[in-house]
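Morning. Coffee machine broken again, so started the prediction first thing and wrote up yesterday's gels while waiting. Chain of 510 residues, entered below exactly as on the submission form.
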Amino acid sequence: MQPAYTCQRCINSLLRRGHAKPILRHGRTNRNSGSRRYIQSSGGDTTFLKQQRRSVTSVESLNDRVIRNAPGDPRFGKPFGVKEPTETPERVLLQPNNLFHSFSNSPSPAIRRRAAMMKSHAYCPHPDHRQTRIVTSPHDPEARKTTKQSTQAPAHVNFECPDCGLPVYCSEKHWMDDYEHHAEICDTLKQANEDDHDLHSGRFFPEFEYPGPQIEEILVNMTNWDTYLYTREYNAINEDRSMRQATRLLTYPMTLASVIHELSPYNIRAGGRLTTEGLKSLSALRYSLHPPRSGGGMDVKGLRPSPPPVRIFILGARAESSLPRQVWIQLEYLFHRCPLHLIFIGPESMTNRDDEFPLPERTPANPFGGIVEDRISNYTKITTFVEYYHTMHKANYFQPFDPYFDCFMLFHPGLGHPASAHEWEETLPQLLETKVPIICTGYTEWDMQRDKKWVEDKMAGEVDILMEAGENRFRSLRWDLNDLDPGDISCGNWGVWAFRGKRYETTMKD
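Came back before lunch.
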């Protein structure tokens, strides 16, 4: 039988010292990191043991169990099913004051591999080089490369800036020559560098612990991140870096909730960005998201008809589909007594998750191979489809649509991006047919305005704007790097806007 409360190293240490009686002591721990105890032998060796479901009843019983079940003792045979312990290298722990490292010399192997990938694919932004792609944005560093000035062939980045630690230029000469332009984003790049090393530091992340249900009478203030975290009773986040790490995940459910919730900070008053048509559509959705108390109970007299769940279709799902489910359950705690069904749809919705959820076979009962997660909570169900939405729409898989129970969410869809616009040309008319709200976000203001212009040009006269485009109050506070272009920085869900297929009112004519 394998010892349940101590490790192999402590067992061997006890046996070498003649079965010395261990001393059980308590150590100081963080209140968020769980209760911990450790065993200190007479020789001074200390090993932390995380207390789990059961607790050690007495020191004597622990000592007897260690001696009796020690698999390393030559007097006892190896118990059945016990595997030999393997030595695992200890993780490098970076302290908060030691997070800045150049990517190539990082203590983290993952970041060193990332630096090698940057040097193999990213190009130097110096204007002496010729363009490597068609310029689609005035903010693109390639726009600085003109035909007359750019005479050198494109070159990959190889020189790491000593101030931000990222490979940004092909040589030190080009870095020094173009330093005035690089200085505009150097501090932001350094911040992103330290945030990435913080994720690989091995520290405990209390900002990733989320609160549970909250009584309905306690209203949530959704004015901004600070008021939301305070009224939802999150653990206090006192560091800017911890705040950036926390909002990087929470931005996805909170961006959606901030638009459709009845306490939304967006309204029809001046500067509120919500239009009259937006108030009509969102009022219908909020009627289902915030149902009145029905007086139901557990007995026969308390039986009440229950409405169908509110379906939220997340199209073009990528990273958001792999978020920890505890992050998406935060939506459930904002909409009491309302069942939610999150539906992730997109060809990349299960990328790098084959080991976690192998794709099921497509059968007549499950024609599109949907992966259903229906036991994560009482009111939330998640279904993932590795398929294009327009294919499922043609098959009438989700019909009928109801403005009271359906909503579309598009995180960074790239509607107007030259590389992905063709994938949305067939989907967009189908979305407008449903007449339900469609909420979109963008990485930057330019990205968001480009998507909005593309929709208005493609479907001129058939679109009602529900919410004007602008900065998202619940955007990610952390800046992200583009490994293919280190000078291109953005943040998740920077802006948000909403639209819907145009609805025509019927009028009576005398």
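The longest strand covers residues 463-471. Going to sketch it on the whiteboard this afternoon.
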